[in-house]
């Protein structure tokens, strides 16, 4: 009963109250994780100033938090962008781009070579809201120009497309978009900023699934949306209002992944080139898709646009369809069959049974995907090891 007031002795009072110490004078060598869902305001004036955007600071985690800000700022620099927002997933970054740009009656022109869920978002989810969309062969610029309408507000393409690694001509698409009053939105997930920085070619908005190479350790789901325009300053607010913001721990993991992103992507690109060249010599393989091969339809464009790196993904077609693919996956027991990409470990996927399972035969034929198509996500092992585990798959 006689305890001084600021040193509670009751367990009921000790447990629920943090002893928050001010930071010491030495900086930690790695960022702390700020898990706080809410921050203390000193006064009504301060709360008003922070919430009104007049003073920097944090109040509520959904609106803003340090770990998301650290990550967004580094990603903004990596893309030489004006604005950057980190979201809860790659899909929410795309949703955010659509919410920021589209209104009922608008139209999206999209590359037919797109991540399956992105197509599902455009056709299944946006349609009921009065947004129409058309798929186009993005490598055919005449077809892109012809498919533009007065209502087209977004052209959407992947820098290097899933799964056959077609390359989009970003400068040409940016020109078509801007002359038609539309924005160019680029999904740069397969490239990463090390291979390509699409804003430099005129892309208005760039999206990354940070889940993949940029985080790089197969332990986090996050997305990024960057803008070339300083006027796009409402993205954070929109993301908070629609509930798309990320958690601090995920941001911390991705921020840590960035520490080695350039090294991982560089090594994986070198390994992918070695793997693609090896696969192209194999009699049981009918086609290898890799932008770094002379045989790739957009090799010259990739050379100009990518500054000597061609990405970490390689696709190839096995002679013998589904049976051959199944045999390869069984034989390649040291290449995990993981329907994702961008891990430090070399992994593989089978598009027909995973990412493209909802496509019918005609659609698959149109895209050039067969039951014998294998998509490799090349990792950061030694090139010798990558060739060894591929040889096991081929039964050598
Ligand atoms: C994975 C992926 C997405 C979606 O990202 P999530 O982080 O899984 O939501 C979008 N585009 C491409 C090219 C992807 O590989």
Itemize the secondary structure elements and their pairings.
Blueprint (H helix, E strand, L loop, with lengths): L10 H4 L29 H8 L14 H13 L4 E5 L2 H12 L5 E5 L4 H10 L6 E5 L4 H7 L4 E7 L11 H10 L3 E5 L4 H4 L9 E5 L13 E5 L7 H7 L6 H11 L2 H19 L5 E5 L9 H8 L6 E6 L2 H11 L15 E3 L11 H7 L5 E5 L5 H11 L3
Parallel strand pairs: 2-3, 2-4, 4-5, 5-6
Antiparallel strand pairs: 1-7, 6-7, 8-9, 9-11, 10-11
Helix pairs in contact: 3-10, 11-15
The site of pyridoxal-5'-phosphate has 15 residues, from helix 4.
Question: Which key phrases capture this entry?
Answer:
single chain; 396 residues; alpha/beta; seven-stranded mixed beta sheet; 14% strand; binds pyridoxal-5'-phosphate
Which cofactor or ligand species appear?
A: pyridoxal-5'-phosphate
Low-confidence sequence ranges: none
Q: What is the overall pLDDT average?
A: 95
Going by helix content, strand content and strand pairing, the class is: alpha/beta
Number of strands: 11
Distance between the termini: 81 Å
Detailed description of the structure:
The protein is an alpha/beta fold and 396 residues long. 36% of the residues lie in helices and 14% in strands. The protein has 15 helices and 11 strands. The longest helix is centred in the last third of the chain and has 19 residues, at 261-279. It is globular. Pyridoxal-5'-phosphate (PLP) binds next to helix 4. Pyridoxal-5'-phosphate is lined by residues 89-91, 115, 118, 158, 162, 187, 189-190, 209, 211-212, 221, 223.
């Amino acid at each position: 009963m006689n305890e001084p007031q600021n040193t509670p002795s009751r367990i009921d009072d000790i447990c629920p109250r943090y002893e928050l110490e001010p930071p010491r004078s030495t900086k930690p060598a790695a960022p702390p994780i700020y898990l706080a869902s809410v921050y203390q305001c000193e006064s009504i004036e301060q709360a008003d100033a922070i919430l009104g955007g007049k003073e920097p600071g944090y109040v509520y985690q959904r609106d803003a938090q340090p770990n998301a800000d650290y990550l967004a700022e580094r990603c903004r620099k990596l893309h030489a962008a004006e604005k950057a927002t980190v979201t809860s997933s790659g899909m929410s970054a795309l949703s955010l781009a659509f919410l920021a740009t589209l209104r009922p009656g608008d139209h999206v022109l999209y590359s037919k070579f797109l991540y399956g869920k992105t197509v599902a978002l455009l056709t299944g989810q946006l349609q009921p809201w009065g947004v129409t969309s058309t798929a186009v062969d993005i490598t055919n610029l005449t077809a892109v120009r012809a498919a533009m309408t007065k209502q087209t507000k977004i052209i959407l393409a992947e820098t290097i497309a899933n799964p056959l690694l077609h390359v989009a001509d970003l400068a040409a698409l940016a020109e078509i978009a801007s002359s038609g009053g539309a924005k160019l939105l680029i999904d740069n997930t397969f490239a990463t900023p090390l291979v390509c920085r699409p804003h430099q070619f005129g892309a208005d908005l760039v999206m990354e699934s940070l889940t993949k190479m940029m985080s790089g350790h197969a332990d986090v789901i996050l997305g990024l949306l960057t803008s070339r325009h300083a006027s796009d300053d409402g993205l954070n607010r929109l993301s908070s209002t629609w509930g798309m913001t990320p958690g601090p721990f995920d941001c911390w993991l991705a921020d840590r992944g960035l520490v080695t992103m350039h090294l991982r992507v560089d090594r994986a690109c070198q390994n992918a080139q070695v793997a693609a060249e090896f696969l192209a010599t194999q009699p049981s393989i009918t086609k290898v898709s890799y932008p770094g091969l002379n045989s790739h339809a957009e090799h010259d464009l990739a050379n100009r646009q990518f500054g000597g790196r061609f990405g970490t993904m390689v696709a190839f077609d096995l002679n013998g369809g589904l049976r051959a693919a199944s045999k390869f996956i069984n034989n390649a027991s040291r290449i995990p069959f993981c329907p994702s990409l961008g891990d430090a470990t070399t992994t593989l996927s089978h598009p027909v049974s995973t990412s493209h399972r909802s496509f019918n035969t005609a659609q698959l034929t149109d895209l050039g995907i067969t039951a014998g198509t294998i998509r490799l996500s090349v990792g950061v092992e030694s090139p010798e090891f990558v060739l060894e585990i591929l040889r096991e798959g081929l039964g050598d």
